[in-house]
Amino acid sequence: MAPGLAWSLIAAFGLAGGAGTLSAQDSDCDDRASLRVAVVDDDMAPARGATAVVRWTDTQRARRPVREVVGADGRLVLCAPRDATRATLWAEYGNFSSEEAVVAIVAGMSHDITLGLRSGPIRTGRLIGQVHDAITDDPVVAASVFVPDRLRVAETDRRGRFVLSGVPAGVRDLNVRHLGYAPLSHVVEVSPGLTTEVEIGMVPDPVEMEPIVATATRSRRLEVKGFYERRHWSELVGTGTFYTAEDIDRRRPVEISHMIADESGIRLQCNARRTDCRLVNTRLSSGVTGACSLNFYIDGLPTRGIALDDVVRPSEIAGIEIYKGLASGPAEFPPSRCGLVAVWTK
Description:
Elements: E1 6-7, E2 34-40, E3 51-57, E4 66-69, E5 75-79, E6 86-93, E7 96-97, E8 101-104, E9 110-118, E10 124-133, E11 144-146, E12 154-155, E13 161-168, E14 170-177, E15 184-190, E16 195-202, E17 212-217, H1 220-224, H2 227-237, E18 241-244, H3 245-251, H4 256-261, E19 266-270, E20 277-281, E21 292-293, E22 295-298, E23 301-303, H5 308-311, E24 317-323, E25 340-345
Parallel strand pairs: 2-9, 10-16, 22-25
Antiparallel strand pairs: 1-9, 2-5, 3-4, 3-6, 6-7, 6-8, 10-13, 11-12, 11-14, 14-15, 16-17, 18-24, 19-20, 20-21, 22-23, 24-25
């Protein structure tokens, strides 16, 4: 399967018996629902090496998205949390990802989802964002979000968030409707194969003021690497600090270590001649003494014995993740008692 393949989505939801865990082998999910995911290529052969990403929504508590590589047979089976009523899932391979699919979870049932690969250029993009009250800043729940001439209408969740997949690339009218608010129509530019984030402030009707809309196109590289999923999780539970290229451009640091050292609990420790500097964590758990150097990863690979500023310049960075403790680090990186910094280049 060539890395340059784009993704399309074929979703089939069945009620066949069976359940599963995080493997391709069927097993007992008790009374919970299960998702049986299969990824295939153009010839309907198993797409070995693809990654399935599942976000459980409408639960009683926030959960990390599940990111699992399918087995050699292109399959993966997951047991849904007991309080889940919906799952949003997609697949990734190389520098491309599929559109998102939303599955209504039914306890005790098995849901079959097939994600199909196809070759050819990407002609659609994705809109993801949040709708809030422009005056109170409270999330607007159950607002309808749609693009004219498209059959799909997205509805905001309890946090006011929405996802619109498969939107034709180009300049589109994004419409938002909710009873008690003035209708909103805003022009957005959809980039093929990319995700555009939209922040929408709806105005209560009949308050006289202009709606508030802000848009930003996500980095494709960061999206595939799971950067935005980890940032979303961190915003819910406060586990890390995230910077994008736009944040770095606004600060314009001479060295990226200077920007990281501005974080609370992190400082730049240098020798007397300032010829050797390292970033250390000053807020450590009990039992840890002395300066504790942060671990660094560039594009997922560890760097040892090399100063970060000697490897990458601020203008070359697409995103930064900073985790200050052992418990806050994501599962994608080895645990580090001193904390870690993950740098993703453009």
